[in-house]
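[stage:ingest] chain + small molecule (flavin-adenine dinucleotide)
[stage:ingest] validated
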Amino acid sequence: MSPTLSIVWFRQDLRLRDNPALTAAAGHGRILPVYILDDANPGEWRPGAASRWWLQQSLAALDASLDGKLWLLTGDPLELLPQLAARHGATHVFWNRCYEPWHVRRDRQLKQVLTHDGLTVTSSNGSLIWEPWTSLKDDGTPYRVFTPFYRNARGNCAAPGEPLQKPRNLALADCPQGADKLARLDLMPGIRWYDGLATNWTPGEDGAHNKLRYFLEHGLADYKDGRDFPARRAVSRLSPHLHFGEVSPTQAWQAAARRGAQDGREQATEHFQRELAWREFSYSLLYHFPQLTNRNMNERFDAFPWTREKKLLQAWQRGETGLPLVDAGMRELWETGYMHNRVRMVVGSFLVKNLLHHWLDGARWFWDTLVDADLANNTASWQWVAGCGADAAPYFRIFNPVTQSQRFDPDGDYIRRFVPELKDLPARYIHEPSKVPAGVLSEAGVVLGKNYPKPVVSLSQTRERALEAYQRIKG
Ligand code: FAD
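[stage:predict] done
[stage:export] tokens:
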């Protein structure tokens, strides 16, 4: 009798270590590992351009760690997986669960089809510390506020365990696909705008662990105080690695716990773990409120009088608003596929409140340009910034990009890096060039309206306009 063949279906878990689906399959005999690029089921939330770039590199790394035996397919898994199983006589299919509404729908259907075909389907938790149905209120309903969600998860849910090792002696089925199998997925964007991404990131499991090690060594100690300052290297930059599952949240959580205990920095660890828990909270929200991706969680905002002026949206996207912190953030995004969290909040607030654009316009742009574009985190964060989400910032708390800049980029280092035309302005003037004496501007080579834009809107007037608009829907 030929040995059992199991399919391991990789999705947002592109790693060998701490991969429960792979570990479970390894105990069952031979393995056929497969990744399927599914652009059919996610609809408008199919991977954006930056994510596709990342995916290409990450799949190459995963394939190399599987000795070139990763199968790569494109199409609808609802058709492809049953065909693959039948063609190769697979008896089991293993995967780690995903929680996006379209994933949940598709996987449920797929499980039915495969089970009907006589296969055994085993799904595991490989992406979250607390799956969405674990941290619930006493009455069984989901939390809408982070702090009680977190308190309950830490106090009453299973603590993260020790991460799994890479399974030993993986018996992999041969893969007949040629050397061009990755190119045939056609993931790389036509226009070559991604060189900046390549110099900033190393996708893949090794790249993820190097990033984690670097953070524990150089960032964790300053995390509590430094995480709000975009020019400091105090945050982990693990978000794309976590999104693609090159490192699991459990691995990050436990590694930080070990390092914190070793260095006597338990407080810094607690702060970092709390941020990881925000990701868990976003997933819980998305799972329980799947309409969140396109609808305001607070329906009162359905009547909000958005204006949507294309020119203003473009100025925001290009980092040409005349507000240096906003422009630095938007250019960091374009150049590196990433933006610091503090600046994400500032540019988000500016788009939604000062420019009166719908949060979905921002969410869609981020979706296309972020290497860490993640439906749960992106949606929950945009709704939070817009004031219409769960546990949202009160609408009237409007970030002022100038005072945020003075407070969190006091020396202007972050602005200088991404808005080089302002690099010669003294720190006290760099945050608001439109208020700088003409002589200082000309000494620094800045000509407003020529080599750096004048502000596209007045902060004070648009702030008043936003508050008035809010009064109208407040009811
Ligand atoms: P660290 O501070 O090192 O945190 C470690 C990890 O915790 C992060 O990698 C992330 O997985 C998680 N985390 C940290 N902050 C948050 C948060 N506020 N909400 C949820 N999880 C968090 N994050 C994404 O991963 N994908 C997105 O598409 C995304 N879109 C966002 C859009 C807006 C408008 C805003 C305000 C925030 C968004 N975030 C998103 C959340 C946050 O900005 C990023 O997770 C964080 O900046 C990633 O950097 P880091 O890995 O260095 O974070």
